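Reviewers asked in the last cycle whether our approach scales beyond single polypeptides. To address this, we selected a multi-component target totalling 1195 residues and predicted its structure end to end. The input consisted of the following lines:
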Amino acid sequence: MDKIFAAIFTPAFLFSVIRVSTPLILGSMAALICNRGGMLHIAFEGIMLSAAFFGMLTSALTQNVFLGILGAIGGGLLISMLLGYFSLVLNSNRTLTGIALNTFSSAGTVFALYLLVQDKGTSSSLPSLTVSNLQLPVIKDIPVLGTILSGHNALTYLAFLVVFLTYIIIFRTALGLQIRTVGENPDAAASVGINVMRIRFITLGISAVVASLAGAYMSMGYLSWFSRDMMAGRGFMSIAAQNLGAALPLPSLLASLAFGAVTALANVLQTLNMPSEIIQAMPYVATLFGLGIFGFSGQRSQHRQARSILASAKQKGSEEE
Amino acid sequence: MELNILSMEHITKVYSNGFVANKDINFSVHEGEIHALVGENGAGKSTLMKMLFGTEKPDQGRILLHGQEIHIDNPTVAISHGIGMVHQHFMLVPSLSVADNLVVGMEPKKNGLYDIAKAKEIAKEAADKYNFHIDPNARIRDLSVGQKQKVEILKALVRGAKILILDEPTAVLTPQETKELFIELKQLKSLGYTVIFISHKLNEVKELCDRITILRGGRMISVEEIAGITELDISRKMVGRDVRLDIEKKPAVAKQTILKVSHVNKVNNLGKQVLNDVSFCIPGGVILGIAGVEGNGQSEISEIISGMERTFDGEVEVNGRNIRNMSVRQLRENGVAHISEDRMTYGIVGDGSISENIISDRYYKKEFQKGLLMNQKKIDDLVTDLIEKFGIKCDGKDQPARMLSGGNMQKVVAAREFTNNADLIIANQPTRGIDVGASMFLRNKLVELRDLGAAILLISADLSEVMEVSDRLIVMSGGMISAYFEDASQVTEEEMGLYMLGLKQMSPGEIKGVSN
Amino acid sequence: MNTKNIEKQFQILRTLLAIAIATAVAFIIIYFIDDNPTATIKEFVLGPLQSRRKIGNIITNMTPMLFVGTGVCLIFSANQTNMAVEGGFFVGAMLASVAATMIKLPTPLHIPLCLMAGGVAGAAATAIPTFLFVKYNAKPVVSSIMVNNMCLYVGLFVINHLIRDPGAGFLASYKFAETSRFPEMVKGTGVHYGILVGIVVLIVGYLYLNKSKAGYEIRTVGRNVDFARYSGIHVSRVITKAQLLGGFLAGMGGAVEVLGMYKRFQYQALTNHGFDGIMIGIMASYNPKMLPLAALFLAYIRVGADCMQRNSNVPVELANIMISVIVIMIVAESFLYKMKHRRIVAAAGKELAGKEAA
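The resulting structure, written as structure tokens, was:
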């Protein structure tokens, strides 16, 4: 037990928490954006996987990291726009289409991988690039904080920036207001002349860009190659993190860090001879707890709304007496 | 002030199922007046206003604004002409603030970002200008119904509406909120705005409005100055049977009490008292009709008796047993059948076959099982027989129910609800939206069942139906029973109108008879 | 005009159309990436028929699909998107392996015991999202995926710590007792008696879902939950039952697969059988009657893709690409068609009603 505590309360551990949480932070923001727009779906896994693949491929072909990121975004948008077309234009079931797109992305990326490198496992033979780690100038020299905060991958810092940007876009721009209106009451949006379909596609698009960054991080930062099904459920965990965070940026960030912490903890425990399988299951079990006990249904809490209506009604009633 | 600022000429609208909603209606309003548009449910008020707001288009006729013909293709066009609609179901976003809801779609911006401060300013200015007491920062979900309505009105005003259409605005308000609304509307009038006030509450119309247009059965009956007409006159013009149904029935033979409703009260989750000390009984062999304009408690009492709603005060007994804690299945097994007013949601399962729809209340019974599986032959025989007996026009018992016409769908519902030996049948708007043939069939079936000893509760906004099919009649208004007639055939339309529109209320002594 | 027949015809037509388009897409892909497309396509399409073993592979591929597919039909007919059949299959295989290695019984008892064990494990997997839904209103979509991942590790944990065979050259369990394995049914093909159990399960599943009162409840709840409640059906009980049974069948499928195809438990990762079942369930419109066709199709293209991969540069994942494209189109087409059709018929019905009203 002591060994565990000794391992956790170190700057190195906290560093690894941040590192491991990065894809979840980005993913939860992507899910948040969709949820606010009334478009929450389960194709994030497929979007991220596609982004991871195309990011790796583009960086290998162009030998340019930035173009690689753009390639990742393109890969993610591909899946996302397919989802948009089929579910919004052809009016099909978003969940079932999402399931099929995840399968499509998984099979498609392995297919393409094999064609490229004759290997279905990883792409490590390709000269793909990674996004570099950054040493933050002043901060790196601060005693404890420096170890925790400096030296992360640039995409990790970008992830935190994205949290802030998500807040700005969704809660501080006119577009965000329209997204939220379409998400909560599309009739209200239509009644003031908003093009509901257009806003929905924009929502999917922005969300896909953010999710793509998570995919890019996996193959161009966390690791330096693409391997089959490398997202390992992170797309779904992101949805759960955003549930836990009630579709708000800061709480969702904290939820992502919490899930990341469990994963980091699992890595620590592995060195301490605990059965590896149980450890690897921990993040998923933690997510289940999160979904059940703290998360309400996938959409935003309706209990709170109902309760407050009742409360104000009771208040009114007693006033009139 | 401009006379006839807005005119609708020779408007006719026929829905795709053949129903004539508006027939050659002329309707116009003067600038700066509050104009009442009254009529019973189904008279055509909503349809007419939908055409003003662009959610429907007239089949014939034209609309003139300031003397020029305009074509209102959608709500955005209506708004651009200065016509604003305040819907019954608010078009608001609960988690956003008042200010947000007001400016969405025309958001003020600063440095590329949404200028929340400016939005609040706009909201405050608008609220002050029209003397609405609204906090721009409040979240919609925290507001009362009355306040939400004010936001809806402000929304229209802020977008430049000069003509406001309010669709039954007081239906959801408490008396206090209604008073406030009237003050605000009169204020708007003094500022030169025009208001079209759709309602069936004649006392309110009399208090608030300048002129009144009365619709009945899709036609315009008359346009009058409020000052020169009494509520009685309005009621007479509004309420009337257009069709004699000539239902043949023998006198009712009352048996023992089957349904007993005692002192039922209900406050809905918005704080409004929707049922107020409602008590009545129905003996077997009698059809008790509940007449009244929709929204006066009929739906609520129907939901309570059928077990779909559990939150209420008071007691309901069927065959002497208190139904409060019974499950729906137990209720059905205790002899309660129910034709719901929402056919598509509760009445049928659209993707299921006609057969699957008919057996939904009895599929589990022993007589329909054969070993471990259901006795398909027995079910098929039953369904085939019922399809014939009820004259359901279909392509066989396996056809999905959603493909049937409205009338045939309702016949499927009836084939189920009328054939399970129910002691109490609740028929809530049983013939709404269905063809004449099916309607006649269903009404005759109800009389037939009554003759076999069932107690029937018939709730209907169709005056002819409820007056001629019922043996006994109560009228509900404002959540209370306003009248009881032991012999429905002796009641005049005029009297019905008075009680339905809340102009007259019987004393408890007069109503007592229905509780025995 | 028999509308029911027309609907059915349309359904088949649209599925065939989706298959045709996906096949065309596959052929185009092959054409562009392979040096000898005609030969490769021939291998893909005709390969499975070339030998008895290959035809046997089609059957053995189909076998687990029948179990999982039927389970999916039950679950999705209740309108629950519980995908824990994937994890359920895995833990079903695991628990059956435990029963196969740790217990000694004569064959007529041993096999049923192992199948039961598999079923129970599978039901436990799908029970978790069900519980979270009924108690906490957490939709099963995300929780079931988490359960899948959890099942993988729980399954591996049990195998590695309980019945791992240190003598085997790789990560695997002890050999299954001979009494627990399905013997080969047709010599030289690999086809084992599990297919017979699968057919029985399919038939029972069909009868249950379409001809029993429990199945009636499941389908009615799935189509219109308000109507079901109004008719007196106990909705949460029905939903729970459907998901537990579905999981049970998926777990049983896992048991049959390991006991019929292998001598030891040697899975290292989730096997995708759950998602295969979901894909064919969607293709079959959740009707067990249509399931064998869908399973046959998927099994055929899997074997065909395998043949193709051995003889060319085209990876076997092409089969999954095809199936996902087909499902996307089926799901889209069904709604598009339904809408169109509803409009057409509603218009006809209203026309009729209009005539009656006038």
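The domain at 257-515 of chain B is CATH 3.40.50.300 (Rossmann fold). We regard this as preliminary and will revisit it once experimental data from Aim 1 are available.
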